[in-house]
């Protein structure tokens, strides 16, 4: 990269840079690429910067390192400065950050050495002795004075500053010399005076500023600065005298206030117009400090003048004040509030509260109704100043006035001002509706907004974005408040601000939006913006829906699905096609949010309802991921539903099994019925024949297995008995009497009773008597009937078989089945039977 004839040590000490020079058009010209090094100048003890061209080894730059603070390091790879010898701006752009740091350290080290050496050597003392006083201010000595002021080091600058302040006639003599040169049209002398005055200003001395910016010298100092040799002559004095007009809305009687006002304006003019490029940062900061101090002085003096403030508000409230005078007063009030920022915070807050007590908000409410749009803008600026200072002051006023000022802000936000004023109204409304305020003020203002003014914003949207049927029939239609709307009634910028305000409300008033948005179908109306031609309005509608979904409220999502509110969004997205723009990104981000947050309701709704449209853009990764997430959701839902179905079937089968078991024990089994029938046939075939030749009837004694719980009462068990045959009561009574006498005559117990038939406690019970019609009697009726029927036949018998049955109604507890006496059990029966 370096030249071939350079030694390795030289190569190591040099850094690769590009040299730039600022041209007259304010652009940087590339002077070439080479290597920079710090070395002694030829035939001098001073150090300088050498830049050698990397191609032909020619010198691109030779600069003597100055002790003045003219070097600036920018972005770690650039060193720039203004060369005082050639009055040009130069810059070195380094290839490596390390090289830039290396050269920068060398420059700083050289500057320190220069300053220390100048303080220690005899030359400094000689110069210091020479600067015991400045040369006389004459045309012949101007070059020497200029060299002393401009080329002096840091220590010399302090001495020069002291000498100028010590000479009380220095600036008066300099001004007189300027006037002589101007009269004689001595251009060279005027150029030297310009450089001298500029150098004195760059000394950055507050004491010098206080002198030259005084009322006596300021205009002549500005005259000296008109003759810049690098700029064509500009008549600054004539502009300040003829074109700049000082207007007094209220006469200011204090001369100090007037002096500070004029001085502040002139210093600002000098800083921003006359010497914008010549001043360094330290000097600009010092001038700004003077301006700030002057503003604080002016506001403090006016604030303490009670008569001035009272007269100001009296004129503003007077109906006799002309429109032009009122406009001037409002502009003065705005400037007065703006300058109050120079005060300390406590004093500024006290001033604003005093202005509120004087009725400043009433005046602003009147200003907001003005036909002059610039005057309305001034009123909104004053409101913003109060909001920035203490928002509670304005909120308290709005609450006390029941939203009169709030309504004016809403009205002006919907009004076409032609400028970007709508953003100011939006910021004011946002600050008033902010949820991070005291509860009482917040609730009142929010109530006013939703009850009175939300409909105005929605009507503005619907009037500019009519439904499809209205758009097809014509551009005019009737809005919700009964007024005839036109499609082009509201500017797109206003619609955008309305949408931003609604998004703000969604974030800060979640409970309010669930009531107002859902009941009044606000969401659907806001989505009318998707029909607008302006793409940024369509994106605003997407952003509004995205903000709603971010609340993760199931009621809102159900409302979106129920009313098919994604349809206009999907239609606009599909109509946009594969164009990669803000609309495409906004909709894809909405889909990504639904997928990542796993909002299953919206996920299924999107794919089920709009996949036929979205499939056209399936090549997009977000659409593919949405489909995959949808399929995963279906699989997980199917697994859970299958497990639930199997579990449900299992429960049903278990209940069915229990029912079958219960029915099995409650009904007659085939085996039991067949076994009982066979037993009955054997008994009939083997039954004994009575003495009269007739066989006893045992049909009424047939037993049946029945599952009966112990807790079940007797009448209920009787009602559950199956159908039975009905023998005549007389035959039954005779049979019981015969059996008790013939079969068991000697089976009496010691207690005087007989053993009753043993019945199975779990299976058998005796069937109750049934009448002819099949109606079942209760156990008590059976007992009474048996007692009456047996009274005559059983007088001789102590206890009958039927009585034993009635004595033990619950025969299940007596043992096994009751068996009839076998035919061969008694010899007497066998003899009689034969």
Automatic annotation (TrEMBL):
Keyword Protein transport part of the UniProt annotation: no
GO cellular component: nucleus
Gene3D superfamilies, alphabetized: Leucine-rich Repeat Variant (1.25.10.10), Pleckstrin-homology domain (PH domain)/Phosphotyrosine-binding domain (PTB) (2.30.29.30)
Biased composition (Basic and acidic residues): 778-795, 804-817
Main location: nucleus
Ranges for domain PP4R3 EVH1-like: 15-114
Residue ranges of the region described as Disordered: 660-696, 745-834
Keywords assigned: Nucleus
Keyword Lyase appears in the UniProt entry: no
Skewed-composition ranges (Acidic residues): 660-673
Positions of the Serine/threonine-protein phosphatase 4 regulatory subunit 3-like central domain: 153-632
Pfam families per the UniProt record, alphabetical: EVH1_PP4R3, PP4R3
Subcellular location: Nucleus
Record's compositionally biased regions (Polar residues): 676-696
Top-rank taxon, per record: Eukaryota
Protein name: Serine/threonine-protein phosphatase 4 regulatory subunit 3-like central domain-containing protein
Organism for this UniProt entry: Forsythia ovata
Lineage: Eukaryota, Viridiplantae, Streptophyta, Embryophyta, Tracheophyta
């Amino acid at each position: 990269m370096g030249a071939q004839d350079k030694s390795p040590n030289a190569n190591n000490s040099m850094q690769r840079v590009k040299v730039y020079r600022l041209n007259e058009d304010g652009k940087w010209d590339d002077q070439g690429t080479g290597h920079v090094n710090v070395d002694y100048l030829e035939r001098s003890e001073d150090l300088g910067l050498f830049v050698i061209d990397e191609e032909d080894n020619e010198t691109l730059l030779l600069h003597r390192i100055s002790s003045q603070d003219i070097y600036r390091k920018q972005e770690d790879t650039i060193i720039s400065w203004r060369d005082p010898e050639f009055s040009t701006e130069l810059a070195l752009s380094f290839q490596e950050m390390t090289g830039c740091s290396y050269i920068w350290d060398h420059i700083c080290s050289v500057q320190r050495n220069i300053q220390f050496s100048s303080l220690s050597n005899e030359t400094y003392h000689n110069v210091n002795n020479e600067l015991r006083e400045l040369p006389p201010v004459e045309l012949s000595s101007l070059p020497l004075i200029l060299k002393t002021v401009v080329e002096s080091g840091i220590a010399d600058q302090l001495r020069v500053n002291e000498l100028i302040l010590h000479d009380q006639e220095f600036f008066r003599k300099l001004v007189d010399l300027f006037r002589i040169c101007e009269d004689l049209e001595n251009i060279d002398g005027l150029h030297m005076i310009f450089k001298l005055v500029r150098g004195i200003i760059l000394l950055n001395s507050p004491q010098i500023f206080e002198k030259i910016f005084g009322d006596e010298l300021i205009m002549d100092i500005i005259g000296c600065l008109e003759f810049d040799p690098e700029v064509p002559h500009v008549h600054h004095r004539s502009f300040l005298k003829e074109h700049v007009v000082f207007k007094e809305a209220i006469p200011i009687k204090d001369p100090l206030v007037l002096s500070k006002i004029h001085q502040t304006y002139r210093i600002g003019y000098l800083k921003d117009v006359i010497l914008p490029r010549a001043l360094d940062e330290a000097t600009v900061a010092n001038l700004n400090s003077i301006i700030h101090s002057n503003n604080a002085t002016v506001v403090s003096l006016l604030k303490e003048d009670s008569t001035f403030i009272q007269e100001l508000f009296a004129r503003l409230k007077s109906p006799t004040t002309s429109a032009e005078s009122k406009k001037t007063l409002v502009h003065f009030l705005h400037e007065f509030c703006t300058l109050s920022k120079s005060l300390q915070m406590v004093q500024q807050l006290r001033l604003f509260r005093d202005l509120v007590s004087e009725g400043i908000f009433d005046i602003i409410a009147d200003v907001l109704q003005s036909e002059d749009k610039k005057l309305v803008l001034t009123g909104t600026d004053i409101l913003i100043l109060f909001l920035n200072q203490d928002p509670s002051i304005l909120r308290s006023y709005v609450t006390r006035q029941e939203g009169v000022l709030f309504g004016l802000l809403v009205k002006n936000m919907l009004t076409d001002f032609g400028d970007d004023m709508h953003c100011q109204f939006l910021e004011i409304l946002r600050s008033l509706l902010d949820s991070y305020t005291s509860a009482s003020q917040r609730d009142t203002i929010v109530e006013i907004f939703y009850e009175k003014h939300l409909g105005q914003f929605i009507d503005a949207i619907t009037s500019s974005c009519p439904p499809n049927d209205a758009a097809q029939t014509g551009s005019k239609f009737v809005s919700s408040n009964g007024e005839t709307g036109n499609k082009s009634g509201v500017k797109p910028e206003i619609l955008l601000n309305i949408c931003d305000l609604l998004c703000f409300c969604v974030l800060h008033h979640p409970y309010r939006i669930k009531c107002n948005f859902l009941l009044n179908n606000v969401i659907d109306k806001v989505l009318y913006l998707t029909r607008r031609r302006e793409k940024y309005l369509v994106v605003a509608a997407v952003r509004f829906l995205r903000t709603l979904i971010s609340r993760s409220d199931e009621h809102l999502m159900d409302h979106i699905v129920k009313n098919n509110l994604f349809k206009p969004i999907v239609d606009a997205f599909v109509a946009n096609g594969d164009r990669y723009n803000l609309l495409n990104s906004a909709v894809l981000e909405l889909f990504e949010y639904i997928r990542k947050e796993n909002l299953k309701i919206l996920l299924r709704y999107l794919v089920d309802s709009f996949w036929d449209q979205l499939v056209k853009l399936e090549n997009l990764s977000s659409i593919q991921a949405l489909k995959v997430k949808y399929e995963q959701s279906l699989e997980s839902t199917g697994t859970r539903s299958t497990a639930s179905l199997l579990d449900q079937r299992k429960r049903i089968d278990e209940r069915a099994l229990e029912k079958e078991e219960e029915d099995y024990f409650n009904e007659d089994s085939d085996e039991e019925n067949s076994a009982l029938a066979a037993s009955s046939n054997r008994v009939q075939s083997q039954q004994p024949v009575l003495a009269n030749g007739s066989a006893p009837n045992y049909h009424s004694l047939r037993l049946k297995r029945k599952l009966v719980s112990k807790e079940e009462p007797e009448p209920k068990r009787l009602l559950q008995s199956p159908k039975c045959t009905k023998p005549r009561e007389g035959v039954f009574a005779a049979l019981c009497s015969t059996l008790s006498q013939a079969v068991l005559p000697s089976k009496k117990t010691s207690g005087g009773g007989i053993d009753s038939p043993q019945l199975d406690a779990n299976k058998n019970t005796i069937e109750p008597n049934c009448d002819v019609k099949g109606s079942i009697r209760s156990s008590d009726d059976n007992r009474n009937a048996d007692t009456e029927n047996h009274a005559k036949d059983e007088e001789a018998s102590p206890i009958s078989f039927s009585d034993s049955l009635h004595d033990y109604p619950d025969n299940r507890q007596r043992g096994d089945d009751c068996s009839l006496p076998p035919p061969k059990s008694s010899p007497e029966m066998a003899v009689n039977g034969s």
